[in-house]
Fold this protein.
Amino acid sequence: MRKRVVSMWFQRLPSDRALRACAQVTANDNRPFVLTHHEKNTDRIYCLNRSAEAQGLHRGMGFSDARAYCPELQSQPADTVADARFLQMLARWSKRYCPWVGLDGADGLVLNIAGSAHLFGGEAAMLDDMRHRLARAGLNARIAAANTRGAAWALTHYGRGAGDDIRTLPVTALRLDAKTDIALQRLGLRRISDLVDLPRATIARRFGPDVVLRLDQAMGAQDEVIAPLGEVPHYGVRLTFPDPIGLTEDVMMGTKRLLARLCEKLKEQDMGARKLQLTLRRVDQSAQQVELRLAAPMRDAARVLPLFERGVNAVDAGFGIDQLRLEATQVEPLLPAQITTTTAARPDGLDDLVTRLGNRIGLENIQRFLPADSHIPERSFQIAPAAYSEAQGTWARHRPRPLKLFVPEPIAGVGSQPPVRFRWRRMTLTTGRSTGPERIAPQWWLPDEAWRSGVRDYWKVDTCEGRRLWLFYTPQTPGWFVHGEFA
Amino acid sequence: MPARTHEVCGSSAHAFALALAGQVSRAKGSSVVWVREAWNSVQLNPLGFETYLDPHQLLVAQAPSHIDVLASAEEALRSGRVALVVMELSKSVGLTEGRRLQLAAQQGGSMGLCLLPEGMGSNAAQSRWHCAPLFDATNTSEDSTLQRWKIIKNKSGTLRAWNVKWNAQARRINVVSEAAQR
């Protein structure tokens, strides 16, 4: 089937979006409105509505100048991320016309309507329908259909009305860069028809292959693809009941059914859920949510279901629940693992336990130790959340280290030898044997408040009372501290 | 004794807990969960206890409150997936909580150990130990670990005391005879 391409160009997409988000009244009245964008140390106009343009403002103009011209000007900061999201929404909406919709730059869409125009009563009726609906939504759009993507683009951006021939349009309509465009203008090649009449080899030699390629694409000699947007998989399922339910077992049974369906979906995409959200809608239209954060990506319904028990028990059913909705709000790739005789079986039960504990005290609060390469005692290990880290690395210990580390506690002591008698935590201790010193220098490349006092000489002190302490002396700012305790 | 909850107090309680955790974890080949209150600023040092227990086998749960420590420990004991559950507590455990921990340990078949300040035990505990370090005058090597472990409450046996030392090569405790002390 012959390709037929519709190009949509939303000239004022950012400002239209901002005005739509405002109250409906502002969108319809004709007060000048601009979006500003901070660029090169000044606020400049990023996008503006029609009445602002009628006042003589233009894009890229300094915002303070614009306000001087037009004192009643209303403005908002631009939000390019929201604009991109809005264009995605428009692309999804456009799938009502044809399945083949692609994005065209930051403010346009391309649709391949081959084979679907008759469903709307012909091409002209379809374009009218598009114009009508977009205008009703408060969007300024230019829409044109042509046989190629290049021609459709040229017609939307530079066309002057219906029945336009692409050959009469200026050469800029070929989607050329500004430099080539100016070079062509200087040679007197103002319209596309001027370019078509020239020998191709001359153009290619003078301006490079780009101009010829764009010309061919517009005229249909060279094919150009439209990359359709992929369907984003949605991991959500729901279950509606004819009669409200209230018993925990019933809710768990409903959750079981939903979970089976959700896990099927996850399996198709080779994904595992990391965060699940169960929404229970009650008959009085209020909703309660049970959130489950898993210690590892999972898609095994039989294992996930018991983890919901605690959350479901805490739900207040009120007059009954008439809809359950289960959504995997965070998913991670979970590829089927190769099971061999040499790979150690992963203890699955531990992940479940981490999930259970994590849902009570927070998943980040279940931690494990990981080795780190540093001589500083506090930095010689890392603490990482167990759910997001793997136990790996080897532990290298060169000198005895204490079991417990404290925040350094000052004690009275003079000189570089450990004090013979000292008081620590209201205990009077006598040094029985001391081993040391072991000098540890601070890491100057990592600023650390605790190591401001300079190098430390560590001593292991066995007291006659029994306790074995790790003391240090700071020669640069003399003082004695207790830093840890041995077994 | 497995499938029961025990208590330990004294200034070497951490060493006792880690020595026990190492033994049980190696025997069962599973992990150890250590539940503590999040405000506790005393930091366990993996390089310090690495001869007792492989630090990769230890999961530390930082619970916001006393109740959460007990609830998390109960959950971990009941799951039966871990060799030992250590709870570091700052308040005494009531009879109800102590009994619940015992039931959870029985159900899951795992061992629990409460680290308590001195004199705050509960009657529900199977045994209570008091551990204190001793000054080792005879030993001249750097890493002396002589301690006195006293069993001060025992539901199924008599009370005794041992002087023990950690043997870093064999990764087990050595009982030191009293005569060798003098």
In short: Helices of chain B lie at 13-28, 46-49, 66-79, 95-108, 178-181. The radius of gyration of chain B is 16 Å.
